[in-house]
Amino acid sequence: MATDMNDKHDMRVTTFDLDSEPVSADTARYFDKCEEKLGLVPNVLKSYAFDDVKLRAFTDMYNDLMLGASGLSKLEREMIAVAVSSVNRCFYCLTAHGATVRDYSCDPKLGELMVMNYRVADLSERQRVMLDFAVKLTKHPHEILEGDRQRQREAGFSDRDIWDIATVTGFFNMSNRVAVATDMRPNDEYHAMAQ
Prior knowledge:
Largest sheet: none
Radius of gyration: 18 Å
Structural class: mainly alpha
Number of helices: 9
CATH class of the largest domain: Mainly Alpha
CATH superfamily of the largest domain: AhpD-like
Number of strands: 0
Strand content: under 5%
Mean pLDDT: 89
Low-confidence stretches: 1-13
CATH architecture of the largest domain: Up-down Bundle
CATH topology of the largest domain: AhpD-like
Order of helices and strands: HHHHHHHHH
């Protein structure tokens, strides 16, 4: 990092430079899979490349929450990521997960509306109740009561689904804070995806 505290641009924590700094064999294999499947190595993963344990913890949790078995669809989980990131104004996650909402929904407008304000998007009642819960948990966690959980049940969510909504919400609150604190920037490729 730069030593001149007056230059804000130099204070940004950069991603791991894969071209000049070696990574472990395990990380290199994982990044090769990312290139193969996604066509890129997400900058968030590069930012964790300095420590295999941290990278593995992050990717294991992400993959379980966002891609693992759940009563929530992958699109619904991405919607939570975007709604939470919108509250937190996380440029990285809004860009990356907004692109994924566009891709999963096959609706570019939905991705953009979710980034701006999910309340104006054409959502099902189930999705709206889910996102209201995620946003309340983000803004006012101390105000979550049994009535909030009951509204989830009435919308068709099981107690396990409520757990998944809460853990995806918590994960993105953590990720947003790390991304904002380090001025993490999304890969340029995300801006053009699923447009």
